[in-house]
Amino acid sequence: SHFMVYGQEPGQYPAIPSFEGEPNMEIALERLQAGIEQCLFATARESSRYAINGMLWEIKGKKLLLVATDGRRLARCRVNLASAPDKQMAAIKIIVPAKTMALLDKIGSHDKDTVAVKLVDNQILFSCANVVISSNLVEGNFPKYEDIIPTDYTNKLTLSTEAALSAVRRSALLTSEESRGIKLSIGENSLVFSGRAPETGDARVDMPIDYKGEPIEIGFNPQYLIDVLRVIKTPEFELELGQQDRPGLIKSGADLLYVLMPINLG
């Protein structure tokens, strides 16, 4: 056998910036990767709004806020910084491409590894151990996500993460393209997950809860619930709800927040 593979001139390869000088900030790799895993799934995949194809980085004091949305759900995670960021980093918001975030999540993690972050023009550079990653930043304006996070809900309940994930998966077994959602029916000390496929049957999963508020019925896309319940690290989480047409709010500890738009089940 004989093969001939044509190459290109090395000089035509794009210039790769090197990581030189002091970083703008430093983050423990383990913490950064945990934040990425809790937000990355919520980024848009093929959206005409290019800005939400990436993840927003916003500095608040000594914490990094990672925010991702696809227009139907929103994930926000707080990550503690290893040191206070410099003035350049603390004063701006940037959007890092989802592919770059996914690449960072694949770096082999050791307990004491630290990621150094540096901004160079419209690029961001990451240095960790013997790995350097450079990426262009996403241009555009990220949505004003604070405006869609509910702050006035009074209907709150605490649920077991493992039990809720199991209930969502089981109730979603009997859904179809027409009834692509599951219904959450909340009453006094009772939560019922139900799904329905007109030509197949119905599913109902009961869960005892501690709840004394007003009855609520609301529909959600089960896959969106599964996505967030899979990445919650705490054994329990808080679910806050308003009216049927208002988004659901999920909180895990003080650092993870998830907003999910409801769907109309007819």
Task: Give an overview in words.
With 266 residues, this protein is of the alpha+beta class. 17% of the residues lie in helices and 37% in strands. It folds into 2 domains: 125 residues, DNA Polymerase III, Chain A, domain 2 (Roll); 110 residues, DNA Polymerase III, subunit A, domain 2 (DNA Polymerase III, Chain A, domain 2), CATH 3.10.150.10. The protein has 5 helices and 16 strands. The mean pLDDT is 90.
Q: What labels describe this entry?
A:
globular; 17% helix; 16 strands; alpha+beta; four-stranded antiparallel sheet
Taking the alpha carbons of the first and last residues, their distance comes to 64 Å
In CATH, the architecture of the largest domain is Roll
Number of helices: 5
* Strand numbers in spatial order across the main sheet: 5-2-3-4-16-15-14-9
In short:
17% of the residues lie in helices and 37% in strands. The protein is of the alpha+beta class. An eight-stranded antiparallel sheet has the order 5-2-3-4-16-15-14-9.
Task: Set out the fold topology.
Layout: E1 25-28, H1 29-39, E2 54-60, E3 63-69, E4 73-80, H2 87-90, E5 93-97, H3 98-105, E6 114-120, E7 123-128, E8 131-136, E9 155-160, H4 161-171, E10 182-187, E11 190-197, E12 201-208, E13 216-220, H5 222-231, E14 236-241, E15 248-252, E16 256-260
Antiparallel strand pairs: 1-6, 2-3, 2-5, 3-4, 4-16, 6-7, 7-8, 9-14, 10-11, 10-13, 11-12, 14-15, 15-16
Helix pairs in contact: 1-3, 4-5
Protein name: DNA polymerase III beta sliding clamp C-terminal domain-containing protein
Domain DNA polymerase III beta sliding clamp C-terminal: 148-262
Subcellular location: Cytoplasm
